[in-house]
# Entry
Amino acid sequence: TPLDKIRNFSIIAHIDHGKSTLADRLIQRTGGLSEREMSAQVLDNMDIEKERGITIKAQTVRLEWKGHVLNLMDTPGHVDFAYEVSRSLAACEGALLVVDAAQGVEAQTLANVYQSIEHDHEIIPVINKIDLPSAEPEKVKTEIEEIIGLDASNAVLSSAKSGIGIDEVLDAIVERIPAPKGDPDAPLKAMLVDSWYDPYLGVVILVRVIDGTIRKGQQVKFMATGTTHLIDRVGAFTPKLENLPDLGPGEIGFITAQIKEVAQARVGDTLTDAKKPAAEPLPGFKEVQPVVFCGLFPVDAADFEKLRESISKLRLNDASFSFEMETSAALGFGFRCGFLGLLHLEIIQERLMREYDLDLITTAPSVVYQIELTHGGGHIDLHNPADMPEPNKIETISEPWIQAVIYVPDEYLGSILKLCQDRRGIQQNLTYVGGRAQATYELPLNEVVFDFYDRLKSLSKGYASFDYEQIGYREGDLVKMGILVNEEPVDALSMIVHRSTAETRGRGMVERLKELIPRHMFKIPIQAAIGGKVIARETISALRKDVTAKCYGGDATRKRKLLDKQKKGKAKMREYGSVSIPQEAFIAALRMG
Ligand code: GDP
Ligand code: MG
# Structure
């Protein structure tokens, strides 16, 4: 395809503003799929994506419109996947900015728009959902101009749901987004935008060709990993897979090259011709590192091998999570896993439970702490609270901090500021635009990883949005808080906390555990402790009657049923000394009140 006939664009939108619906409409209108083939939502094809309404993996679709090839790049919609987003944006020359006509501009939109502007994109505002009675397109135009600083006078008004404004969107893409630039005669340079594992094709790699041509039968070198591969297939998704002889400059498509693991195909890497290589790789390659760690243990110790296999399989398709074996006194054999963020953690955990049918215990998520040991004992990166050295061996301990931008309607501002304050936040900035406030805070990542996002949403009835980036490590007065059930430490529940919040956290934890652990035939003390010092304590009183007593000894089948039920319940419990703790308690106890 000649360069001047190509348009590459992505869609930026806050969750639920209509990105997927609009994408489906564009595909339908340009004839990529027949009415019958249009399943609910073509781009979101994973169950978890559908349920949560977010895109986890980037997808591209090649559309044809009035003699042009339009490549639509869908970008992941969550802060955890910021690097993938940046590479997808780098592969495009423009973007549609979809804003819900009733909701207006949100924080997530802002963060992505700024990135898009940094990539010099031509941005076309699309005001969607104009069919809603509460739609206020003029007000949203003003917001786009005042908050983002983009000219919205020629915004396209659409209803992706009712099919209004779809041709206008397609025409605007052709007319306003610049054609890509590239040199067909230069040595091949193609950016690796995304990769995933396909059971039939092996690893499929999405590329954006910058210079030169990539073709079937070519030997290509991956410049960051240093490996060479023979390309055995080149093509594009329309969204059906179509084979092509080659991809020239400016084009986006996929290749396969007999690669077995996605870890060999790093997002951001540069592909070049092995025989006639480019002098230097494309800028911007970065190796993504996991930031949140937790232990995953099978509820049933016999499932360990199954867990190992399942985790290995998932890892084939996701190079950004890490795992290594871990043993715990109480939980037995399991894995210490690293993730890009909490959503990423939840996705992996859910897939293990759903797709591989495993019952799992997840230990308290932790960030990576940096510890300097006393007497020149060196430095350690601490991934697991259980490995925390004795306090007298620690010279300093530092934790990662983030800068968060929160966007919230005025009426909820007070409770959001209090939440940030409670989480050791340091306010940087507070501005008002229209009826909304934008608060910028520095926060310790540790205070945010578990439930900050949920709290933010519930305190603001869903209206607040939040985006963050890491800003480095800072020293802190951090201590390890252990939980003892019936005098036995439960290592899965131990966590590293700031001394100033330890008591509140400890108290909340023992109170919740008191509710979550069933009563036994004896009294059970539950304690939170730092070192040997107990900082909070609750007691579960002993059970007085036999469970079966309320059957009046009469009905034998009923009695047996009750006992069976009890036994079943037991399968999902862990024994600590002589105390059984239900599986749900592990996660529930970690949610802060
Ligand atoms: P995404 O999260 O940005 O991908 O949003 P979706 O495309 O999944 O849309 C979120 C919700 O808004 C879904 O329930 C859609 O049916 C609905 N929606 C999308 N576009 C429109 C529209 O133009 N009008 C109305 N009324 N609803 C829409
Ligand atoms: Mg979507």
